[in-house]
Write a structure and sequence with these properties.
Elements: H1 13-26, H2 31-36, H3 40-56, H4 62-76, H5 79-91, H6 96-101, H7 113-126, H8 134-143, H9 146-168
Helix pairs in contact: 4-5, 4-7, 4-9, 7-8, 7-9
Length: about 190
């Protein structure tokens, strides 16, 4: 149960606009918006940040971005973010096997060296304290430009903000992953 009442029909210009946008984007009201609607300043700042990110953060490959976001939300333990991230990965063309395996990336053979360094960096930068070694930073730089590295750090930081906001308010999964189509079995056998 959320730690604040969820406001399905918010009052005030900013919360109402956020509710309309949320319904268009997600097809329903989402709990992070319902919770943030109690404070127009927080809601406005979050919306401004998300809008800026959508328009200006385009350097990092979308699969690398998704991997960093998903493993970050898993590390923080935000069930809302993990649930939505699974849905997003399945619907954005990420390999379904990778979507299912991201939580066990260290033992999976599905991820290449570039993906592994993103996953390791995201986990490490999410730690408290965030102690990214020179060795890890060098491995990130061997695969990514400076702009991509900065954006990767931005995505990890942004997802920490999102996940900690949601988890801190007791927001839980809304069942987005339940709406994912299960890919059909291939000639090689059933899909895991």
């Amino acid at each position: 149960m959320a730690h604040v009442p969820l406001n399905e029909q918010p009052k005030g210009a900013i919360p109402r606009l956020a509710a309309e946008y949320t319904k268009r984007r997600f097809g329903q009201m989402v709990e992070p918006t319902e919770a943030a609607a109690h404070h127009s300043g927080v809601l406005f700042a979050m919306g401004a940040l998300e809008t800026s990110v959508q328009k200006g953060w385009k350097k990092l490959d979308p699969t690398m971005r998704w991997l960093a976001i998903q493993v970050t939300s898993m590390r923080v333990g935000c069930s809302w973010c993990v649930d939505y991230g699974y849905y997003e990965g399945m619907n954005q063309g990420i390999d379904p096997e990778k979507v299912r395996a991201v939580g066990r990336w260290r033992t999976s053979d599905l991820f290449d060296e570039r993906e592994r360094v993103v996953l390791e960096y995201a986990e490490t930068a999410t730690g408290s304290p965030a102690e990214v070694s020179e060795e890890l930073a060098a491995r990130v730089r061997s695969h990514f430009s400076d702009a991509e590295f900065v954006e990767l750090a931005g995505w990890v930081a942004l997802e920490n903000f999102r996940s900690r906001f949601n988890a801190g308010l007791g927001l839980k999964s809304q069942g987005f992953s339940d709406r994912c189509d299960i890919p059909e079995a291939t000639a090689g056998g059933p899909v895991a």
